[in-house]
């Protein structure tokens, strides 16, 4: 059985996302102009990279560099299920290509979980700010691993700088809750990089920029619902992808749906009381 699904997300740096299930198919030798970041959800894969044999399975993160010949095939009788990110060649320094050729496999459970979460965020209807936040941290960690071949140390952000960055990003989010702001735009305004911005915000406020934005959008959607706006319109006006997107977050935060939170009958403006006719009978 073969199942292949691919799409191009609206996230700078990610050229393509591919999800595939192969029972027997093998790739002939080929190259990509992009970095290939691969995780395997079931089964295992055998492949040759630059004429050297390798394999990858569930615990691994595999990084194949651009312009280097490789192939791929099932390593067992059950085939494999994989998820792949194809990253623009500028996402990781060109000087790391040789490092990836020598050791394409990374064993890092936290990185693998982050890549899985990034795939979820890149799905159609996912949250752009969540995907951008995860991507910034994933790219930074991949670069650190390839450069040093050990878990990269997280650079510390000094307290005053952390507060400045966190407050600055919060102000930018609050300025346009429905429209949102990208991390790249915010980083340019605040003269920093996206990964440092995510870390500073999370350290200062205890939640990620994406979680903060979702909370603010839910607050806006609740106000709209209580003002009589129907759920589908409230969702788009508050910055959610669609009503289903709003409902998913509503259930997670309030254990109910937008419609049950503010039923139609509760949103009908009260009618003025009818005055009794007190004129004397004729």
Could you walk me through the main structural features you see in this protein, from its secondary elements to its overall organization?
- The protein has 282 residues and is α+β, with helices and mostly antiparallel strands.
- It folds into 3 domains: 2-148, Jelly Rolls; 159-206; 211-266, Arc Repressor Mutant, subunit A (Orthogonal Bundle).
- The protein is built from 10 helices and 10 strands.
- The chain has helices spanning 97-102, 109-122, 128-148, 159-175, 183-190, 194-205, 209-226, 231-237, 243-254, 258-261, and strands at residues 2-7, 14-22, 27-30, 35-43, 45-49, 52-56, 61-64, 70-74, 80-87, 105-106.
- The protein has a 6-stranded antiparallel sheet with strand order 1-2-9-4-7-10. It has a 4-stranded antiparallel sheet with strand order 3-8-5-6, with no helix packed on it.
- A hairpin with a 2-residue loop joins strand 5 (45-49) and strand 6 (52-56).
- Helix 2 (109-122) runs antiparallel to helix 3, helix 4 (159-175) packs parallel to helix 7 (209-226) and helix 7 (209-226) packs across helix 8.
- The protein starts with a strand and ends in a 21-residue tail after the last helix.
- The mean pLDDT is 90.
């Amino acid at each position: 059985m073969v199942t292949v699904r691919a799409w191009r997300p609206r996230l700078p740096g990610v050229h393509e996302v591919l999800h595939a299930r192969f029972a027997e198919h093998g790739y002939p030798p080929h190259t990509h102009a992009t970095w290939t970041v691969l995780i395997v959800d079931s089964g295992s894969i055998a492949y040759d990279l630059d004429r050297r044999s390798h394999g990858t399975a569930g615990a691994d993160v595999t990084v194949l560099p651009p312009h280097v010949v490789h192939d791929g095939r099932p390593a067992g009788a059950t085939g494999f299920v994989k998820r792949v990110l194809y990253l623009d060649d500028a996402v990781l320094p060109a000087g790391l290509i040789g490092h990836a050729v020598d050791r394409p496999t990374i064993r890092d459970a936290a990185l693998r979980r982050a890549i899985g979460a990034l795939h979820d965020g890149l799905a159609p209807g996912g949250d752009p700010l969540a995907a951008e936040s995860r991507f910034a941290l994933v790219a930074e960690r991949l670069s650190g691993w390839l450069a040093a071949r050990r878990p990269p140390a997280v650079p510390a952000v000094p307290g005053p700088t952390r507060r400045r960055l966190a407050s600055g990003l919060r102000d930018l989010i609050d300025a346009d809750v429905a429209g949102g702001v990208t991390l790249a735009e915010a980083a340019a305004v605040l003269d920093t990089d996206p990964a440092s911005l995510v870390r500073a915000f999370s350290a200062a406020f205890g939640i990620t920029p994406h979680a903060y934005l979702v909370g603010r959008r839910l607050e806006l959607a609740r106000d709209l619902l209580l003002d009589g706006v129907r759920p589908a319109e409230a969702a788009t006006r508050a910055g959610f992808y669609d009503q289903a997107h709003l409902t998913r977050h509503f259930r997670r935060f309030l254990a109910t749906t937008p419609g049950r939170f503010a039923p139609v009958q509760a949103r009908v403006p009260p009618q003025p009381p009818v005055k009794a006719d007190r004129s004397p009978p004729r």
